[in-house]
Design goal:
Keywords: Membrane, Transmembrane, Transmembrane helix. By secondary structure, the chain is mainly α. It has twelve helices and no strands. Helix 1 runs antiparallel to helix 2. The relative contact order is 0.07.
Length: 266
């Protein structure tokens, strides 16, 4: 994570170098060369952990621009700037996954596809397992936007395999499993099967802490209410999306539904 930000990377190199040299020289002065080297290594590791925590805090603040402010444009601008300066492969993968999410939420299918095509989902270890699950989760979302049902099903199978990776942490497995269940319900809805959908998304809405998630769920609930001819509830859901959705693509979709509903009433 440190390598995503030039500032944290620069500070890490400076503090770790000065501190390790000082510690090593201090212990070398009392003729303890090996102990100096050991403490210098411990210092470097400790600074790396501290700076990595600061980097995660910075990244969460950036992500919250979209999750809480519903502003994918600003979020994408920052992520693109970070990507342009980032050389580390793992950090670039993380930034590209974030970019693909941003473009999907902005409704920019072409750029979302361009970014997804550049991502290598075959990373190793726990981080690789997380990135793979995130990649297929976003790929399913992309094919939903493209209304390519066959590719949705195929990508969901790959997402299911990624979720069964033993290296995937329990936290991320639960997160992506919830997303998988939502997408499975959306897939059923495309086949005019709405059984259990309202309950599922109402449960998601109760658990959701961020405005982005609430807007997304309200939009889906609006679609469900329209299907059931519950026009007052549908209108309320779409109006919530328009009011709170910022520049998310759900806003334009909700506005279209509201316009059609007004035309029908007239």
């Amino acid at each position: 994570m440190i390598r995503c930000f030039r500032s944290t990377k620069f500070i890490y190199y400076i503090i770790s170098f000065i501190g390790s040299v000082y510690i090593w020289m201090k212990l070398l002065w009392i003729n303890n060369f090996y102990l100096g080297g050991l403490f210098a290594i411990i210092w470097i590791i400790a600074i790396a952990l501290i700076m990595n925590s600061f980097a995660w805090i910075k990244m969460k603040k950036i992500i919250n621009i979209m999750r809480d402010d519903c502003n994918p444009e600003k979020y994408l601008q920052i992520c693109n700037e970070l990507l342009s300066h980032c050389k580390d492969k793992k950090s670039r993968t993380l930034l590209m996954l974030n970019l693909s999410t941003g473009y999907l939420k902005a409704g920019d299918r072409d750029r979302a596809q361009m970014i997804l095509d550049r991502i290598d989902e075959n990373g190793k270890g726990r981080r690789g397992a997380t990135y793979r699950a995130s990649y297929y989760n976003n790929l399913v979302s992309y094919f939903f936007l493209e209304k390519e049902t066959g590719n949705v099903i195929a990508s969901m199978e790959k997402l299911k395999i990624a979720l069964n990776n033993k290296k995937l942490s329990r936290v991320y497995k639960n997160k992506f499993l919830c997303s998988y269940n939502e997408k499975e319900s959306l897939l059923n809805m495309t086949n005019d099967i709405y059984d259990g959908a309202e309950q599922l998304f109402n449960d998601v809405l109760i658990r959701e802490n961020h405005m982005l998630g609430k807007v997304y769920v309200k939009y889906i609930l609006g679609i469900i209410y329209l299907h059931d001819n519950r026009l007052c509830e549908a209108r309320e859901a779409f109006e919530f999306v328009v009011k709170n959705g910022g520049t998310l693509f759900y806003v334009k979709m909700a506005q279209k539904h509201l316009k059609k509903m007004i035309e029908i009433e007239i």
